[in-house]
């Protein structure tokens, strides 16, 4: 078999082309944009399929330079940490804390269900964990990151990335399907009082609007945000290596978790000391670009044959996870969040990011509010919880389950 190797630069070109292909298809195929399937997933899977055909029928294997993969992953999780402004907790009040506790409970249940079913089927328990909170509440980025961990020592799980991709993609689709019907069921069953104004527009105060316009992405601000990410990577990697050298396996976490926490500490320290105000929009942009490129590389190099071999156990777990999400949203999220209209909208949002992504949660809530009226509370709580708080809690939950095996 002939092997064609791509160096750093040509690999980067392929990664960008994969993203452009995904963006093109998302703009042309409505179902892809409807369920918020990431461009990297669409382009990556198609690229992986083409590379597989090339290998099977052309007897040609493509080898890519992976030196960018880990830095991009670490940059994404660093950006999540830098966006974790704990002063934002005040905006959501008591209900945000309640919602965060509820979502944390779901993380534990998702892993327990996933591991239980995978073990019952005689499969690797890591399949259940990857199809649990890692991808259901973590999405593609968290899934691919943990897959990298499980593919190496001491786990050596060859199909980790394939399981993560399948589970995260399935979660995005199902999360977008069940959210609206769950909210509609709750509103009808409990005869909830709704705002009724379906055309309500959220007005931004003049002062906030002016402040938003004043802060633009400039060369100087970009360098500042880039510097913050670089510090997170440097400190996170150093701390991870230091902990590993101590050989304290019971407290060892993946490197990206250390980068995330470095971002959290750095963001809130700078804010408390009034040294620097993190430019959220700019840091978020850098994080999203890093994630897109990271996923493009991870997905275009997956083994689709391995994925096909694991189809039965993966989808057995995911079916039960979908049922769990529906019942949890109805009987737990709705009840503990107040059993009112806001709680119904929160339940729809929870179905979205509880199965994989905050954007899906936002789409779910927008669809509900379009029909019944605006829920300001839900649109404050869900982004705050889904954007970064849940990732922090998820890291501890995942590590807790791993320590049991």
Could you please describe the fold and organization of this structure?
The protein has 405 residues and is mainly α. It is 77% helix and 2% strand. The protein has 17 helices and 2 strands. It has a two-stranded parallel sheet with strand order 1-2. It is globular, with a radius of gyration of 21 Å.
Keywords:
17 helices, single chain, 2 strands, mainly alpha, 405 residues
Number of strands: 2
Beta-strand proportion? under 5%
Helix content: over 70%
Question: Outline, from the CA principal axes?
Answer: globular
Briefly note the structural class of the backbone: mainly alpha
Give the N-terminus to C-terminus distance in angstroms: 40 Å
Low-confidence segments? 197-212
Radius of gyration: 21 Å
Query: How large is the count of helical segments?
Result: 17
Largest sheet: 2 strands, parallel
Spatial sequence of strands, sheet with the most strands: 1-2
Q: Could you spell the SSE succession in H and E letters?
A: EHHHEHHHHHHHHHHHHHH
Average pLDDT confidence is 84
Summarize this, please?
The protein is mainly α. Helices cover 77% and strands 2% of the residues. Helix 8 (160-189) runs parallel beside helix 14 (311-336) and helix 15 packs antiparallel against helix 16 (358-372).
Give the topology.
Layout: E1 2-5, H1 8-28, H2 30-34, H3 39-58, E2 60-63, H4 69-82, H5 89-120, H6 125-136, H7 139-151, H8 160-189, H9 206-214, H10 219-246, H11 255-272, H12 280-300, H13 304-309, H14 311-336, H15 341-353, H16 358-372, H17 376-402
Parallel strand pairs: 1-2
Helix pairs in contact: 1-3, 1-12, 3-12, 4-10, 4-11, 4-12, 5-6, 5-14, 5-17, 6-7, 6-8, 6-14, 7-8, 8-14, 8-15, 8-16, 10-11, 14-15, 15-16, 15-17, 16-17
């Amino acid at each position: 078999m002939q092997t064609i190797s791509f160096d750093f630069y040509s690999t980067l070109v392929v990664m960008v082309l994969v993203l452009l292909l995904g963006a093109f298809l998302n703009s042309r195929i409505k179902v892809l944009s409807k369920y918020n399937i990431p461009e990297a997933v669409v382009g990556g899977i198609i690229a992986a399929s083409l590379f597989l055909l090339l290998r099977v029928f052309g007897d040609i294997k493509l080898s890519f330079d992976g030196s960018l993969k880990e830095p991009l992953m670490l940059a994404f999780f660093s950006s999540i940490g830098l966006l974790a402004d704990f002063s934002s907790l005040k905006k959501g009040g008591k209900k945000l804390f309640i919602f965060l506790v509820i979502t944390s409970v779901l993380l534990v249940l998702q892993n327990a269900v996933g591991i239980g079913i995978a073990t019952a089927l005689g499969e690797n328990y890591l399949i259940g964990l990857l199809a649990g909170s890692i991808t259901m509440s973590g999405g593609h980025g968290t899934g691919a990151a943990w897959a990298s961990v499980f593919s190496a020592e001491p786990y050596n799980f060859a199909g980790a990335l394939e399981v993560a991709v399948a589970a995260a993609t399935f979660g995005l689709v199902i999360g977008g399907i069940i959210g609206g019907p769950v909210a509609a069921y709750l509103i009808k069953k409990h005869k909830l009082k709704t705002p009724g104004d379906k055309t309500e527009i959220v007005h931004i105060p003049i002062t906030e609007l002016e402040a938003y316009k004043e802060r633009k992405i400039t060369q100087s601000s970009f360098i500042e945000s880039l510097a913050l990410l670089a510090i997170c990577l440097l400190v996170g990697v150093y701390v991870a290596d230091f902990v590993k050298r101590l050989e304290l396996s019971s407290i060892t976490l993946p490197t990206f978790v250390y980068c995330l926490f470095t971002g959290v500490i750095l963001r809130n320290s700078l804010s408390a000391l009034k040294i620097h105000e993190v430019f959220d929009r700019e840091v978020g942009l850098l994080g999203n670009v890093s994630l897109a490129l990271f996923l493009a590389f991870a997905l275009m190099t997956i083994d689709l044959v391995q994925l096909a071999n694991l189809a039965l156990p993966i989808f057995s777990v995911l079916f039960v996870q979908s049922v769990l999400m529906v019942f949890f949203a109805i009987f737990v999220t709705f009840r503990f969040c107040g059993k009112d209209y806001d709680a119904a909208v929160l339940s729809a949002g929870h179905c979205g990011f509880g199965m994989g992504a905050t954007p899906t949660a936002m789409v779910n809530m927008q669809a509900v509010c379009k029909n019944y009226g605006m829920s300001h509370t839900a649109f404050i709580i869900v982004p705050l919880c889904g954007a970064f708080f849940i990732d922090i809690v998820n890291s501890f939950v995942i590590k807790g389950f791993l320590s049991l095996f």
